[in-house]
Amino acid sequence: MDSTDHKKFLIGNYASPVLEIVRGEGAKLWDSEGREFLDFTSGIAVTNLGHCHPHWTEQVSRQAEKIVHCSNLYSIPEQVRLAKRLVSEIGPGKMLFCNSGAEANEGLIKFARLASGTPDFQGKGKILAAENAFHGRTMGALSATASPKYRKGFEPLLDGFEFAPLNDLDAWDRKLDDKTIAVLIESIQGEGGIHEARDDFLQGLEKLCRERNALLMIDEVQSGIGRTGDFLGYHQSGISPDAVALAKGLGGGFPIGAFWISDQWSAVFKPGSHGTTFGGSPLACAAAHAVLDVIENDGLVEAAREKGLVLHAGLSRLVERFPTMLEEVRGRGLMIALAMENDPAELIASLREKGLLVVGAAGNAIRFLPPLNVDDAEIEQALNITEDALASCQTKKSE
User: Fold this and answer.
1) Tally of domains in the chain
2) Which of 28, 56, 101, 140 has its CA at a distance of 20 to 30 angstroms from the CA of residue 42?
3) Does pTM top 0.70 for this prediction?
4) pLDDT digit string, tens, across residues 285-304
């Protein structure tokens, strides 16, 4: 791979790439030198059907021959039908489409700000979010992200955000006051290292919001669309939020985001109060329909739950074998982290050299995010590569 032009023409906000990816099929990727890799990143929880799924490719190609883009000044049939399908999964409410997870979370923040001007919430304005969370890199979403790693250099950010520790309901009880308009929280912190919001915590948070007249907003950008073994990560807890953000896996690789607002509050947005040029285009919606088709027809939500148990158990056995290197396995479904004692960079590099692609996360964690239709042989292959890489790293340290 010749990285000269890459460095010459692309802004250096990413670390210098070590691979040049040119092709994908299923759970596999190939680089420009012909090397094959098992992809357990899924584009960071995006390609939930794997790469180039035949139904997805056919539907996107067919739509591209009809119409790709149409202004939201007009009704788009594919968009209306997609909204109906998502509402049937989430609950009574309405959808607004956008292009990314950051935009979806921006939409939730704008929703809370708009709601603060209604008689129901007069005088409220504060949004309470979780420490260690990640909601995106736009200025609003970044303001709801507490980590200095992401905020550094971009201050001053938006006012009106406070933070409390995940799963510490007493701390949220203290901070959720009469100025709080909304709570924004991930059902599972992805970038934060795969930390689950416990069911009892989410249930307690919902109770606090109802008692204190605050909106409950859930970020399902990384944990949604079947990845956790439920259609959305919070579904396991049985709560009923007021708003939900979606993206990543919704388009199967084509950019699309969305947010849902419950019927009770869906009239907060008025004509002209929010908009998007590209959000919910016919092509983006066709991609999302193809994803939902395959998830439904192939039972991929249930498959993610079952295959996740196999992956979790296999990684747990490695924790037992390498106790000085590994701490624990976290997560559920096919959103799993292997937490290490030290920086995982060396292990990630070793895995890559041996043919397995994974992605790091905060807290010395490695995320395993395979496609939802990963097969048993590929999970076994990933576990064998991980064991081999751990053994290699252990041998180097003892030399």
Assistant:
1) 2
2) 140
3) yes
4) 999 999 999 999 999 999 99
